[in-house]
């Protein structure tokens, strides 16, 4: 994509999503995700007037001198956007690809965080970490994130959610508000999600297309797997083929819902032809 066209597309997304974040999401986001409150800062020698309940008895015993734990109020949040850019995101049978909706949701959340003066970071993943942008503040930083979402070309087209969650746990040492945006056509990430959700506030936003749910009966069709590139002829006229596909798809979705629920993480499901604004607002208000 040429620079001129890229800038026009970035500007178009900024205008649409910033309006949403300014007038709709900023207040809901701020209410739903509050600061972490009092967090540990350091240990220092006891001073006259300190609260004796703050004494760190382990350190006191080690140095044979009273030491107290010092806490400070932490108001700012860090938002991490984890975005699936595997091959299956470039699918769509309505007016938009899944990828288009994913970009809009990510941009809206980023501007909402900016309204709250929070830091925003980005992790683009396939079956590997394709790009990591550390958390920072400001409009120019958000615009960089949008540019990367639009034009970044992944090295792989496969998906590995567990790998992305491992990277999140290894890079984010403090609690973060995490939005993972994907179609979640993956599995075997239950344990890594369980570990990551103990530290972070994670929400899975599943973006999907209506045509992914059921295979239409249109006879023999040549189909290509968007993630592996494999091409094969499929007899969609066969009822058993259609039922097996539906079971495979539903198993992945059930795994997503159950796994996120067990870990205490949030879940949002939005179809490409539905209003993601309505879905996200409903989720924020339910928290």
Please tell me about this protein's structure.
The chain is 43% helix and 24% strand. With 287 residues, the chain is an alpha/beta fold.
Summarize the structure.
The chain is an alpha/beta fold and 287 residues long. The chain has helices spanning 3-32, 57-63, 98-115, 139-151, 161-171, 190-199, 239-262, 276-286; strands at residues 37-45, 67-74, 78-84, 119-125, 129-136, 177-182, 201-208, 220-224, 231-235, 266-271.
List the helices and strands and how they pair.
Blueprint: H1 3-32, E1 37-45, H2 57-63, E2 67-74, E3 78-84, H3 98-115, E4 119-125, E5 129-136, H4 139-151, H5 161-171, E6 177-182, H6 190-199, E7 201-208, E8 220-224, E9 231-235, H7 239-262, E10 266-271, H8 276-286
Parallel strand pairs: 3-4, 3-6, 6-7, 7-10
Antiparallel strand pairs: 1-2, 4-5, 8-9
Helix pairs in contact: 1-3, 1-4, 1-8, 3-4, 5-6
